[in-house]
Amino acid sequence: MLLTDLTEEQLLAQALAGDEEAFTALYRRRQGPIFRFALHMSGSTQIAEEVTQDVFIFLLQRGADFDPARGALGAYLFGVARNYVRRALERSYSENALSSSVEDEAAALMTQCDPGEGIARHQASTAVWKAVLSLPEHYREVVVLCDLQELSYAQAAEAMGCAIGTIRSRLHRAHDILGKKLQRSAAASPGISGIAARCVS
Amino acid sequence: MTCREFKHMAASFSLRELAQQQDAPMFDHVENCAACEAWMAKQQGLNASLHTLRSLTAGLEAGPNVEGALLRVFRQGTPVANVSTTTAKLAVVAGTRTSAGVTERKSLVAPHSTPFALRLSRFFEVGAYAAVAAALLIALFLSVHLLRRGHDSPPIESKSLPAANVPVSSPAANLEEERASAAQVAPKRRYLGTSRAATLKPAHRQVIAPLAGNVTADEAQADADAGYVALMFCDPLSCASETQVVRMELPPSGGGASPGGQPQTADLVVGYDGVVRAVRFVN
Fold this sequence. Notes:
Strand order of the largest sheet of chain B: 1-4-3-2
Number of domains of chain A: 2
Shape of chain A: globular
Helix content of chain B: 40-55%
Structural class of chain B: alpha+beta
Number of strands of chain A: 0
Distance between the termini of chain B: 99 Å
Number of domains of chain B: 4
Mean pLDDT of chain B: 64
Number of strands of chain B: 4
Mean pLDDT of chain A: 79
Strand content of chain A: under 5%
Radius of gyration of chain B: 46 Å
Largest sheet of chain A: none
Shape of chain B: elongated
CATH class of the largest domain in chain A: Mainly Alpha
Low-confidence stretches of chain A: 192-201
Oligomer: heterodimer
Order of helices and strands of chain B: HHHHHHHEHEEE
Low-confidence stretches of chain B: 78-115, 156-173, 185-215
Number of helices of chain A: 10
CATH topology of the largest domain in chain A: Arc Repressor Mutant, subunit A
Distance between the termini of chain A: 42 Å
Radius of gyration of chain A: 18 Å
């Protein structure tokens, strides 16, 4: 049977049994979402890579504790990542490492855009990302999980260990706050909201 | 659709829970309502912005160095080579691995060095907890103390009524009774933690301090059984505490005034609480 046909739970079992290929396959399947989650939460590539590494090391150490009956492996990994992100953010806040990282990440993103729209998308994404990063942590988590990682409410609730209703209410509130923040930033630098719409089209 | 109905559905729209048929009336409504249109525009702007961010970051992944480091951990458990300046803090040691699989994997993530400011803030946090605990203890102690005090303070009000007919003017006759009542009360007071009962004295032994009427202690003792009228609220116990004799002139219009309109002089036995225990008209 090919590794691509195996479920994540099966890959984990094989990896814990010492199968390196299974571990690599699992890592490659899951590292992207974990990395992006940490990146969106922290705004720093360094922290995101550190968290990704920590999550998979944790999986090697404590993967046997994972119980498929309690939820999917993806949600479990997001839950672990969430804790590592919190820890990393605590450290970063005290070291003031986060102050200019958003600008750097946005600049990196800009290079991936079309040259014609590069600056516009850079501005739009920077404004949105700044707004997301300025949200309180529990609101930021739901925005990142549901809006940016496109998890369902059930999966997000599993990852965060709370009820679906909590996710819904937090997301609704987070959208309210984000809307106001974006409106304010649009008023400060007109054109950003229009740019965002253009990016989508 | 009214604005009220629009607002009712707004949360579901914001959470993208509505099907296309369901949100069609909302779009119809915003064509005629400026306020709802502004809200809708804000939501659409937000959704577009989030979509932009999501599409821009969709392809981002961890660098190959992370995978390399993890594979090194998986293979042999030697300390991980530096992934980045931040992950350089990680030092992972894996355990032995047999052909049957990973029998023992002992990965140790070196504790991240805590910056001094964070340690300091934790110190203050612990200090704050300790201060709050100490304040609670002190408050508890004070409240218990105050409660005890409240229990110890002598009841002034109606307890004196039953013995109100005992005249202070004849302490010799009531001495035995007073002593007996004091002896009854004393153990209880001692139990409550006060030595007030030990200070109880018979009325005729009180130190009588003249205030207004220049009455000395000897004169007061001589007048002890000379026509004092006990008032209703004087019980043996409270009358046994320290008292003072005050001579004062009652105004002519008062009840004690003489029929000729002359002011009447009277001696008042006043207790420590300011309540008059007994009265005697001098003339």
